Amino acid sequence: MSVSMSVEFDTVLVGMDDIREIAIWNSGTSELILSSIVPSDDIIVVTPQADTIDVGKQKSFEVRFLPDSIDVVDVIVLLHHNAPGSPDTITVHGSATKVVRPGDTNADDIVGVSDIVNIGLCYGEIGPVRAGIPDSLEQLLPIGWDQEICARADCDGDRTVSANDVIVIVENFGRELWTGIFPKKSHVQGSSGSSIVNQLIEATKKMPEGRARTEILAKLVYYKHEVLGIPREWSLLQNYPNPFNAETIIKYGVPEGANQVTVSIYDVLGRRIRVFEELDVEEGWHEFRWDGIGDQGTRMASGVFFYRLEVPLYSTVKKITYLK
Fold first, then answer.
1. Cβ 177 vs Cβ 101: under 8 Å
2. Rounded CA gap, 215 and 141, in Å?
3. Which ranges of 178-285 would DSSP assign to H, the alpha helix?
4. pLDDT tens per residue, range 209-268
5. What's the domain range around 273?
6. So what's the pLDDT on residue 194?
7. At 239, which CATH number?
8. Is the peptide bond between 48 and the residue preceding it cis, with omega within 30 degrees of 0?
9. Residue 251 contacts by C-beta under 8 Å, 6 or more apart in sequence?
10. What is the pTM of this model?
11. Domain boundary residue, one of 37, 70, 97
12. Is the dihedral of CA 105, 106, 107, 110 positive or negative?
């Protein structure tokens, strides 16, 4: 009997399968009877499982790899037959992995608040680097992590579970359709982006006290203010242009949501001539535009005016110059 003594499989996704063929040759002087072909693990299936081969002939057998977990495997297949030296062995080598969606640490096919939990659980764990395109919607989990959840929690694939992995959740938040390459993450901007970050901040506050909680909170706060540009405190910027003729922009920053924000414009005698109000204001940067007209519809004379930002527990004033 003559047979290839090893079978090699490429990496196969868990839940999928791959097939190789082996050829068994009867080089003897009588009919070869293969009474059973028995793999040492049921992730390998050989068909047919028994057969006969005429003298001088060969037959092909299908070897199917059906991985059920992330691993590197070596499976021994025993070939029981009627020729001397029975049973013969075949070694089947293969590896298996799973597809991971960046940020989806709990494998529920959507990136959300709950995905931050596994980062906290696996914080500081180290494993193999995740290969692949950084912005790809589907990447392969590297083989070699002690726990699959930690391989998933390493969202940026840099081999360490850290606060940086939380940003992958932020930037892919709410994504559940997985085809092609991520478009530009335009949904993570301004107040909509800060809403995502705020949800993750609240979830992080529920973590046990410790390094993971502290560093993740710091990373989220930094991202909110330095990347998304959400102001850290109430701010009133100098109007632009100043002096102005047709229209000027008054911009103000809200560090957290407010029920009401008022910007009032006063003349040099302290009379309030125009009031701008905004209700249910989200955190972020907002603006009013003033065209030099008062609340009564009268255009103001050229001169110096003052505009005042007013919210509970905070107010500030700046000067504005209007030129007809």
1. no
2. 25
3. 190-205, 211-222
4. 999 999 999 999 999 999 999 999 999 999 999 999 999 999 999 998 888 999 999 999
5. 235-322
6. 86
7. 2.60.40.4070
8. yes
9. 236, 237, 239, 240, 285, 286, 287
10. 0.75
11. 97
12. negative
